Amino acid sequence: MAYVLQVNFKMNGPFGDEMAEALTDLAKSINEEDGVMWKIWTENPEMKEAGGIYMSETRETAEKYLDMHSKRLTGFGVTDINAKIFAVNSKLTEVTKGPINN
């Protein structure tokens, strides 16, 4: 069963194209993480928040990635990390054309 990891946190920037330029290597490294199928990057410059939605193959891989990512964010000085893990209802997600890839 696939699982979604939702993470968001306060961040002063960069956002938009500057964020893309600054974090491209980090983005590429996520492709190498065991069990992480994809990520949608999220940002809200007005609220000074950023984060992402990650699709993982299992709950265990989502938890493992969250642990590693939380430590990395803390190393960057991020202190207010909000994270949730959800099971994916594959049948309903398929009806609404969600990209599950399972």
UniProtKB/TrEMBL annotation:
Pfam families per record: ydhR (PF08803)
Superkingdom of origin organism: Bacteria
Record-linked InterPro entries: Dimeric_a/b-barrel, YdhR
Protein name in UniProt: Putative mono-oxygenase ydhR
